[in-house]
Amino acid sequence: MKKSYDDIMNLPHHVSATRPHMSAIDRAAQFSPFAALTGYGDAITETARLTGEKVELDEYMKDVLSVRLQIIADQLKEHPEIAITYFQPDEKKSGGAYVTVIGRVKKIDEYERVVVMIDGTRVPIDEIASIDGEIFETM
Fold first, then answer.
1. Number of neighbours of residue 35 by Cβ within 10 angstroms
2. CATH number for the domain including 97?
3. In angstroms, rounded to a whole number, what is the distance separating the alpha carbons of residues 50 and 22?
4. What is the 3-state secondary structure (H, E, C) of 74-103?
5. CA 83/CA 130 separation, integer angstroms
């Protein structure tokens, strides 16, 4: 009984004399899936990304933060190490996230209303939710 392809099974592999050999990567690329909706996956991921809403502080917490900023300003020459949690608005959609920065304070810029850390991080004073550190433990 004769099987299919018996007549060509033992023939040598054909190598073109006029065309260069295609690499395995290039050969595989011609069978890769076609992305008809370029950017659609990124749009879905962006839509699914969660953002939180900013919590509005009451007057008591605003006073506490103001006192703590004054304590930091009084001890600025020692560059106190603190942890500041602040709201960072999202650049692409409404809402944002709370971020905590730990480091030493370089200066408090009252004009631009930012706390500048030694590493260059700038924290907007109006977005601060809490300030913690060893310098406040004696209070």
1. 9
2. 2.30.30.100
3. 45
4. HCHHHCCEEEEEEEEECCCCCCEEEEEEEE
5. 8
Q: Please name the residues in contact with 101: beta carbons below 8 A apart, sequence gap of 6 or more.
A: 83, 84, 85, 86, 117, 121, 123
Report DSSP state, residue 53.
P
- Give 49-58 pLDDT, tens digit per residue: 777 888 888 9
Domain count, the chain: 1
pLDDT in tens, 58-79: 999 999 999 999 999 999 999 8
Entry pTM: 0.64
Question: How far is it, in rounded angstroms, from Cα 35 to Cα 19?
Answer: 29
- The CA distance from 99 to 88, in Å, is 7
133, 75 Cβ separation under 8 angstroms: no
